[in-house]
Amino acid sequence: MKPPLLVNAWHPLPAGYAPGGLSPALPGSQVLLESGCAAALAALVKSAGGEGRIVAVSGYRPHSEQLALWEEVLRDKGEAFTRRYVALPGCSEHETGLAIDLALDDGSEIDFIRPYFPYDGICAEFRAKAAEFGFIERYQAGKEPVTGIAAEPWHFRYVGAEHARRIAALGLALEEYVLQFNRRSPE
Ligand SMILES: [Zn+2]
Fold first, then answer.
1. In this structure, is residue 160 part of a structural domain?
2. CA of 58 to the centre of ligand 1 (A)
3. What is the pLDDT of residue 1?
4. pLDDT the model gives residue 187
5. CA of 68 to the centre of ligand 1 (A)
6. Is residue 12, in this structure, part of any structural domain at all?
7. Does the active-site annotation cover 152?
8. pLDDT recorded at residue 133
9. The total number of structural domains that make up the chain
10. Which SS3 state, helix, strand or coil, does residue 54 take?
11. pLDDT tens digits for 87-123?
12. CATH number assigned to the domain comprising residue 155
């Protein structure tokens, strides 16, 4: 088994990386994800009873879009905020097509950078089932020194069910898990 793809400030996307085929993140959504990831997300949302309540805010972003987003947030919110919440262009999981930002649609305006995705109700149901469908909550509180990104309750990463179950059970950040995985199964 291969380790999950690790993308962060210290591990840029492999040169020439291109995502697989893309599909709507959820039925009817304009947000795109790699097709297998999209199918898993739709099944997870359905299983959690979140259809029509949980919405896709941001999924696959081409490099040019990540670059434009970085520059826009930098201009509007300053460097400290940008470094906390927006990954460097070339180092964003959103460029892989395997990461999704979600919001609970409660009728209020959705914050594109920090969507509302609380820890109770239907979102708790979603988290409880996430690993079973291959997703992990990628940037958890307490793991900031390891991930380099502030806690983001809305950002989920698809790694497949087998990895996701192990990561959830071990309580590891993806960085920690990949390190451990590679130590145990050297190539
Ligand atoms: Zn995100």
1. yes
2. 7
3. 87
4. 58
5. 15
6. no
7. yes
8. 98
9. 1
10. strand
11. 899 999 999 999 999 999 989 999 999 999 999 999 9
12. 3.30.1380.10
Active-site residue among 34, 93, 95, 152? 152
Q: Determine the structural domain holding residue 83 and report its residue range.
A: 22-184
Candidates 33, 9, 4; CA nearest to 87 is: 9
Is residue 102, in this structure, part of any structural domain at all? yes
Domain contains 74? yes
Burial class (CB in 10 A: 0-12, 13-18, 19+), 72: middle
Question: 143: CA distance to ligand 1 center in Å?
Answer: 16
Q: Determine the distance separating the centroid of ligand 1 and the alpha carbon of 120, expressed in angstroms.
A: 20
Query: What distance, in Å, lies between the first and last C-alpha atoms of the chain?
Result: 11
Mean pLDDT of residues grouped by 10 in the chain (187 residues)?
Answer: 94 89 96 98 98 97 93 95 91 96 94 95 98 98 94 97 97 97 79
| Residues near 177 by beta carbon (within 8 Å), at least 6 away in sequence | 3, 4, 163, 166, 167, 170
